[in-house]
């Protein structure tokens, strides 16, 4: 028999259903039950709180949903208090009918709780605000959390990421203003968020000589771990080629000066990128080619030069990602030189189910919580486990950015 734990659910909307709660918390209705008390004298109106009864091994993951949004309210999720902690709960069969089907659930009955179980529950209580997921841990090396789409949502984004096993996120700086905003965000979530500082090729038209000094000051912080996003984009051309090259060259020089890695954007600009980087050979720190979507020859050149390749949800896309998946399968991009990223809110991978990892089923906005999908695709193509992908890529993050899980 499995041991159960009762979870308190607070600040619930009065019209919320058990099905909605189970879906939000990503709990299988075959293994858990939601109890929603009603207002005395008004059985049609919920009381605004409830209880979730589920197996002990699922408790830590469910507690990560504390603070989640449900119908515009902030959900409270906590271990329920019991008047007698020495009394355990064990499963026995109970048939529960819902509006759509009848399933077999369980109901607790009392017997003696072993001491080691009580110790486990107390440990869960002590770390309820910082829960470790049971699945592999990942680092998202590139997420644009200062983007307007995440305004007022960053805490929720981080919570969903943590529940999916994404333990740390690098917030990408794409302009002087966004780099400063990334640093401010890191101040709010230390040890979880880290920042990069740089000027994206789209913003290269705003580059001035004093930008190097401003970025250097930001890069003096230990939690600002890379120069970038910088590079060149000859597809959209939102800045001229000359403006892009000037800003890129200055930021490569800056990375050499401060000794922090380069986070490089390359879109249809491989020859220009390599030509610029070649001028700094012998001085270059680590180089990461962010959101790689290029050719096998370009990947081979980058790997040959000792650079790292960042892959996003692009690799998961059915048609557009075919070539990059083949590079993984053929060993052109080795796991030893691979880093994982989402480039959120962009590069959304195909989601296996609506509401994946707590995302709004209607959203097209990518989030760090989709990073496991990138890892699964990499694992399939490389013929290894997701755990190995997590282990190797997080080790690579430590080697490049000095950010450790």
Characterise the protein shown here.
This protein is of the alpha/beta class. It is 32% helix and 23% strand. It is built from twelve helices and 18 strands. The strands form five sheets. The protein has an eight-stranded parallel sheet. Helix 5 packs parallel to helix 6, helix 6 runs parallel beside helix 7 and helix 10 (322-330) packs across helix 11. The two termini are 35 Å apart. Residues 82-112 and 122-133 have low confidence and may be disordered.
Which terms summarize this structure?
single chain, 405 residues, alpha/beta, 8-stranded parallel sheet, 4-stranded antiparallel sheet, 23% strand
**Assembly state of the chains shown:** single chain
What is the residue-averaged pLDDT?
86
Shape field: elongated
Q: What's the helix count?
A: 12
**Termini, distance in Å?**
35 Å
SSE sequence, one letter per element: EHEEEEHEEEEEHEHEHEHEHEHEHEHEHH
Q: Please list the strands of the largest sheet in the order they lie side by side.
A: 11-12-13-14-15-16-17-18
Low-confidence stretches: 82-112, 122-133
